[in-house]
Design goal:
The protein is α/β, with parallel strands linked by helices and 249 residues long. The protein has one domain: Aldolase class I (TIM Barrel, Alpha-Beta Barrel), CATH 3.20.20. 42% of the residues lie in helices and 15% in strands. The protein is built from ten helices and eight strands. Helix 1 runs parallel beside helix 10, helix 7 packs parallel to helix 8 and helix 9 packs parallel to helix 10. The structure holds 1,3-dihydroxyacetonephosphate. 1,3-dihydroxyacetonephosphate (13P) binds next to strand 8.
Length: 249
């Protein structure tokens, strides 16, 4: 399995930030893992141009479930692919919260991404109240049940799951390594039940306050096959050591 270090720039970045991409490519000309940045859509095609011929892949942060049509302001998977995307993040908790995305919405988008031939990165994660109530695994189980496509239409690396506890995003707090291990092994078991042995080859990412200082410990947890990184993906000086930690894991 080729592990995946993914950066989610969220609503950050303008032209001048493309300089970070050149630095990242310089730092990791041939990383021993996949390396991905998902910029805001306004930067996607220019970032893809910067990354041409390098090991860096670029991706989208969301897409519409339909390929085209009367959906003002929306962008389809085919359009993101045309702009140079190879991956699309779906169902991030910020989209679930800010845009009312449900598991059913995420499922429809995941099917659209599969149809476009791109890699879908489907996010799941519990809130702090849900963890405190002891319902973490039930919440993750139901998100997986509702958000994932019925079958794998491509190689198992075409569908990636990102476990991002909502309370760990942008807070500097992370679950304990045992808590991460518990959720990741639960996700693996759930995927194997659903898709069969091929699911052992699916990448499971951890996301939420990943930084250079905690990356190696997180990557040593069983079934953590990479990371989805927010704040620490914006600067190459922060993200490059995370990629290095994954490549060495
Ligand atoms: P932070 O790394 O800033 O906590 O964000 C995580 C995230 O939401 C990535 O999608």
């Amino acid at each position: 399995m080729r592990k995946l270090a993914a950066g989610n720039w969220k609503m950050n970045g303008t032209s001048e930030d493309l300089a970070e991409i050149a630095k990242l490519i310089d730092a990791h000309p041939k990383p021993n893992c996949e390396m991905l940045i998902c910029p805001p859509t306004t930067l996607l095609s220019r970032m893809a141009d910067c990354a041409k011929g390098s090991a860096l892949r670029v991706g989208g942060q969301d897409c519409h479930a339909h390929a085209s049509g009367a959906h003002t302001g929306d962008i389809s998977a085919a359009m993101l692919k045309d702009a140079g995307a190879t991956h699309i993040i779906l169902g991030h908790s910020e989209r679930r919260a800010d845009h009312g995305e449900t598991d059913a919405t995420v499922l429809a988008k995941a099917v659209a991404v599969q149809a476009s031939g791109l890699v879908a990165i489907v996010c799941v994660g519990e809130t702090e109240a849900q963890r405190d109530a002891g319902t973490t695994l039930a919440v993750i189980g139901s998100q997986l049940e509702g958000s994932l496509p019925p079958s794998l239409t491509s190689a198992p690396d075409g569908l990636v799951i990102a476990y991002e506890p909502v309370w760990a995003i942008g807070t500097g707090r992370t679950p304990t390594l045992d808590e991460v291990a518990e959720v990741h092994s639960f996700i693996r078991d759930t995927l194997v039940k659903r898709y069969g042995d091929a699911a052992n080859e699916m990448r499971l990412l951890y996301g939420g306050s990943v930084k250079a200082s905690n990356a190696a410990a997180l990557f040593a947890v069983p079934h953590v096959d990479g990371a989805l990184v927010g704040g620490a993906s914006l600067k190459s000086a922060d993200f490059a050591p995370i990629v290095a930690a994954l490549a060495a894991s």
